[in-house]
Every structure is written in C-alpha cells, then in structure tokens.
Structure prediction request, 393 residues.
Amino acid sequence: MRGRDDEWTDLMRSANAGDSVAYHRLLKSVTPVLRAGARQGLSRAGQPPDQAEDIVQDILLAVHLKRQTWDANAPFAPWLFAIARNKLIDALRRRGRRVFVNIDDFAETIPSEPPAETLPTVEISNHLADLPPRQRDVLRSIAVESASIKTTASKLSMTEGAVRVALHRGLASLAAKLRKD
Amino acid sequence: MDTDRLIQTLAADNDQRPRPVSTQLAMALLVTLPVVAAMLLVTLGIRPDFMSAMRNPFFDTKFLVTLALAIPAIVISVHLSRPEASLGRWIWLLLLSPFILIVALIVEMTMPQRAPMMVRIIGRNSSLCSAAITLLSLPILGGAMIALRHGAPSRPAVAGALAGLMSAGLGATFYAAHCADDSPLFVATWYTLAALVVAALGAAIGSKVLRY
Prediction:
C-alpha cells in the first residue's frame, strides 16, 4: 500500500505541474480501488452493487473539481479516500439508508480489477442532456466521441480557449446536478 | 458514459486548475472588508473621541478580542476546506478570544468602578450593538461562503459556523471603532451574542451551500 500511495502522490504532483498524462494515469490507477470500495460500501449497507459505477464517477468528478484542496505536502491517498467516503455516504443517504461507512472501505480494499462486467452508468448521461447547449456539445464531443480539444474547437467553430472553458464549466455543472439528485 | 471516457475527459481538463481556497478567501476578504468599512463610516461613523479612546486599554482590548476570534477562524476555515481535515486540536485556537475576554473581565473586576455592573452590561448602545455587528458581518459571510464553496469540507455545517465566526469577528472589529461602550462586561454580552447569531446563520447556510 505504501508504494501505491507514494506513486499516487507523485503522479498528483506531476499533474498539478501540468502533466496531463500523469493525471490520466493517476485517475486510471485509483479507479479500481474506488470501484471496490464503492461495491463494498453498498453491500455493507445491504444494497445491490448496480450503482457502484455511478458512485465511482461521482467520486472522480469531485476529485477533479476539488483537487486544489489537496495539499501537495500531504499524502494523496487519505485525501482521496475522504472524498470517496463523503460521496459514498451521500449516495447511500439519497437512497434513504442509514449509513455506516467503514473508514476502511476504501483504504483497505483489494482493487476489483477489472470487474467482470462493466456496470452501466446512467446518472452522468442523464444529466448531460440538461446542460446548456454549448457545454453539452463540447462534453459530448470530448467525452462521448473522444475528440480532442483541437478537433472539437474546429468542429464547433469555437476557439480552443472557449472549448476549454466550456469543458470545465460543463464538468462543474454536471457535479452540481449530481449533488441535487 | 463509461468511466474510461470520463477519465479521459477529466484529464483533458487538467489545464483548468482552480485557485486554492486560501487565495479565494483572501480575494473575498479584499473585496468585502472595504465594503463593510464604508458601511460603517456612512451609517454609524467612528466614535468622536476615537483618538483619546485609544489610550484606554479596555477600548484597545475590544479589537484584540475581535481579531483573536477572526484570525483563528480564518485559519481554521481554510484548514477545514480540505476533505480529510477534522477540527481536532484546532478548536483550541478558538478559545484565544474568550480567554482574552475573561482576563479583561477579571482585571475590570479588580478595579474601582464608577458604574454598577448592570449599567456596564447594558452600556449606552446595547440595542444597536448586536444588530449592527450582525449586519456588518453579512457581506463578509456572503463573500466567505462563495470562496469556501471551492473547498470540500467533510462537515459543511461546522465549516459554515467557522465562516460565521470569522465574519462576526471581522464585523465586530469594525463596529468596535464606533462602539462607545468599552467595558469587557458589555463586550462579553453583546459581542458574544452577535457572534453566536452569525455562527448559527453560517452553520445553516454552510450545511446547504458548502456540500460538495
């Protein structure tokens, strides 16, 4: 675990220094751990695991939008697991469950890598349609069609700067909509 | 949307890095503090004998008490904006202001008094005091909430209450320049009442808007 945690911390430092590849690797690396923790938390609360992937995505979005609250001199894992717990508790509460989230649900899981079937997710896709048109088009292009920022800009006749702004705003609006559910 | 695509999208957004909460809060205070200063000057003004009052240690103590509340509350608010942070030992910092106030109360007790206790508590302006401090705190509270929304507090109501204490401490610092009542008994009663009101308001707002 120590080695893994140190690796995450290093990746996040590189990401903060502007290294998007390191950031991508970091998110890829934490996702199986988050997935296992979400499943474990759901099963502990007597819930079917079918919403685990929605919870994982909710956590990833929060990690992304709140990463400025991570202190670069502190280890990354406790910060990550604090956000993950908060989101899991939220998800269980929304389902009207009494919540007992074990501190160690995330910290001590063995990553379920990769899950036999990737569970379908609905929440983000549902909200995507309700975004303001510009944010929606940019997110669809980048997230659904995997286009680059550059391609998206020329396709939607926008500047790359405007695409970046719309992308960030779109992600923030998605997170806000998930919170309101 | 599958998770891999989401991750790809988040990585593409890595260039948009929000400013740290401490910077956001500093900017909010830079905007709201002059507004509150202007509010005070336009409505109540500072007390006419401000310069000579500065020679009265009990007058100066009011600023010490209010800043000893505001500054730790600012520090703790920034700390609590981190998801893994807990109040823990930080809460002791909040006792600094009450401690100074208690020392001042004891000192005042030992001095020969010209006015009886109840007169000192009620002072000249008690009806105005708590209400004015509360009103002066509101712009600061609003700015602080907007800034702290960039944080990720694990207990939004606690974070909101701290924002309330910060705002009340700063609002009271301004009001103290107007306030003609210098008795620590007056401060302990009416300033504390205002701080509790604003802290409760902050907790109520925080539990709604500081969730992430």
Q: What stands out?
A: Chain A has two domains: 1-116, 122-181. The two ends of chain A are 34 Å apart (CA to CA).
